[in-house]
């Protein structure tokens, strides 16, 4: 099988006419296949077969793609059954259901919306409406759901927008949730895998769920601010159907599970005692400076007893504060906090404050 990286294919896109999902990403998606008894796998938009290539040779590999060159590559896979054609317009495996589906449909592409014809198509006739003509994402999801065996699992990579966009997509998303087809929703940060700079999501579909809950998994990527270099943190939460309804059928993992940095625990007593030490030291320094100035100047400027008067004024203030009740203390404290704030602003502007 010929191999190409996305970077190579971007350079030669017109010649190759296809893209590959990075193999690391495919392996990651495969971890969400939680059944063992299967001998076939299906990819409805298989490209050159990267999704299918990770399965052993004894597994039958079914796929369809619109690009002839991609199909030729995919047909080189052992035990493969690859068809050429537009998946939404013609299902080449119409009579088959699959226990395992692994897919990465193209994101938010236009499709030929022959409304009356598609409404009669068995894959789409039960939907409340068709997806917008400019965004085929939920059409691919509906096709995948239709092809899924009642005891199977589908793991689909999608653009995050389908989890929260409104109008027709909201109606279809609501239908998927109300019919209990959404099993898991997993966020995938950008740059997690080679050639995947944008954030994506993985949606796991099942038809045989035993509860109406949906598991949301949100991968938190640590930044410089919260210690970059840590391994990514996987946060997960099982969310009830009622909560999803309350959130207007939004399926974004960020709505239900978010990383919260540990809150710094502040020892109020220790902070206050440290502040008191600063005040006492500040008073001592200011008093020493004042006495030095008064004693160093001639008696024509300051009389020696003026320092004693200054100390008495300070003692008077201390006694006034000691007599304040709780309410008075609160009121005066608020005034002083505002005054302190103003003084800090003056300092920041380059002025000196007076003691």
Account of the protein in words:
The chain has 355 residues and is of the alpha/beta class. It has two domains: 6-256, Rossmann fold (3-Layer(aba) Sandwich), CATH 3.40.50; 268-348, no CATH class. The chain contains 13 helices and nine strands. The protein has helices at 6-11, 13-16, 23-30, 50-53, 68-74, 115-120, 137-147, 168-178, 241-246, 253-256, 268-296, 305-323, 326-348; strands at 40-43, 60-65, 80-84, 98-103, 148-158, 182-188, 200-205, 214-220, 233-239. Strands 4-5-7-6-8-9 form a six-stranded mixed β-sheet. Strands 1-2-3 form a three-stranded parallel β-sheet. It is elongated and about 110 Å long. Residues 4-19, 222-231 and 351-355 have low confidence and may be disordered.
Layout of SSEs?
Blueprint: H1 6-11, H2 13-16, H3 23-30, E1 40-43, H4 50-53, E2 60-65, H5 68-74, E3 80-84, E4 98-103, H6 115-120, H7 137-147, E5 148-158, H8 168-178, E6 182-188, E7 200-205, E8 214-220, E9 233-239, H9 241-246, H10 253-256, H11 268-296, H12 305-323, H13 326-348
Parallel strand pairs: 1-2, 2-3, 4-5, 6-8
Antiparallel strand pairs: 5-7, 6-7, 8-9
Task: Provide a brief overview of the structure.
Helix content is 39%, strand content 17%. The protein is of the alpha/beta class and 355 residues long. The chain has two domains: 6-256, Vaccinia Virus protein VP39 (Rossmann fold, 3-Layer(aba) Sandwich), CATH 3.40.50.150; 268-348, no CATH class.
CATH topology (level 3) name of the largest domain: Rossmann fold
CATH superfamily of the largest domain, called what? Vaccinia Virus protein VP39
Order of helices and strands: HHHEHEHEEHHEHEEEEHHHHH
How would a crystallographer describe the biggest sheet?
6 strands, mixed
Per DSSP, what share of the residues sits in E-state strands of 2 or more residues? 15-25%
> In total, how many domains does the architecture comprise?
2
Give the termini separation: 82 Å
Helix content: 25-40%
The geometry reads as elongated
Structural class of the secondary structure composition? alpha/beta
pLDDT averaged residue by residue: 82
């Amino acid at each position: 099988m010929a191999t190409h990286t996305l970077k190579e294919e971007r350079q030669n896109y017109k010649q190759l006419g296809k893209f590959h999902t990075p193999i690391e990403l495919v392996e990651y998606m495969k971890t969400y296949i939680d059944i063992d008894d299967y001998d076939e796998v299906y990819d409805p938009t298989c490209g050159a077969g990267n999704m299918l290539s990770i399965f052993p040779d004894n597994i039958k590999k079914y796929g369809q793609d619109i690009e002839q060159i991609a199909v030729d590559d995919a047909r080189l896979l052992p035990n493969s059954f690859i068809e050429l054609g537009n998946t939404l317009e013609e299902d080449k495996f119409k009579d088959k259901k699959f226990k395992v589906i692994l897919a990465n449909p193209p994101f938010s592409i236009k499709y030929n919306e022959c409304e009356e014809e598609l409404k009669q198509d068995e894959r789409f006739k039960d939907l409340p409406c068709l997806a917008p003509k400019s965004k085929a994402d939920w059409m691919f999801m509906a096709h995948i759901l239709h092809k899924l065996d009642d005891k199977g699992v589908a793991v689909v990579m999608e653009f995050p927008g389908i989890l929260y966009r409104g109008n027709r997509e909201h109606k279809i998303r609501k239908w998927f949730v109300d019919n209990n087809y959404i099993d898991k929703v997993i966020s995938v940060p950008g740059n997690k895998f080679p050639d995947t700079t944008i954030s994506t999501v993985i949606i796991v579909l099942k038809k045989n769920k035993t509860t109406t809950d949906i598991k949301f998994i949100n991968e938190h990527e640590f930044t410089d601010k919260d210690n970059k270099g840590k391994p990514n943190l996987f946060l997960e939460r099982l969310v009830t159907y009622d909560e999803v309804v309350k959130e207007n059928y939004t399926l974004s993992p960020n709505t239900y599970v978010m990383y919260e940095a540990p809150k710094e625990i502040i020892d109020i007593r220790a902070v206050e005692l440290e502040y008191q030490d600063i005040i006492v030291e500040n008073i001592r320094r200011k008093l020493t400076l004042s006495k030095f100035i008064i004693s160093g100047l001639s008696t024509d400027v300051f009389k020696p007893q003026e320092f004693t008067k200054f100390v008495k004024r300070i003692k008077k203030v201390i006694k006034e504060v000691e007599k304040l009740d709780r309410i008075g203390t609160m009121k005066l404290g608020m005034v002083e906090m505002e005054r302190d704030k103003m003084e800090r602003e003056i300092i920041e502007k380059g002025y000196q404050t007076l003691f």
